[in-house]
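Task card 7
Instruction: Convert sequence to structure tokens.
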Amino acid sequence: MLSGTLHPYTEALLSAIPSVHPRDKKRHVIARGELPSPLSPPGGCPFHPRCPYAKDICASKRPELEEKEPGHLAACHFSGEIYRLKTEP
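Output:
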């Protein structure tokens, strides 16, 4: 069963939420790069110019929104690999 974030944009958004406990250490994910123009968005995945996991396919093919587990959808070519990277010891 998958759990956690499966898209890098979601990961960055959730990491920006402040913790209510000052002692909680949280890894902040910062999306690097320039925001794309809304008048001329990039081809492929809209987040690929700022995605740390992006590969060539991300620039040319828009990922399909897929249900990765019941009620958990993601549109990322590499969501399964991203999940494994975050959960491996």
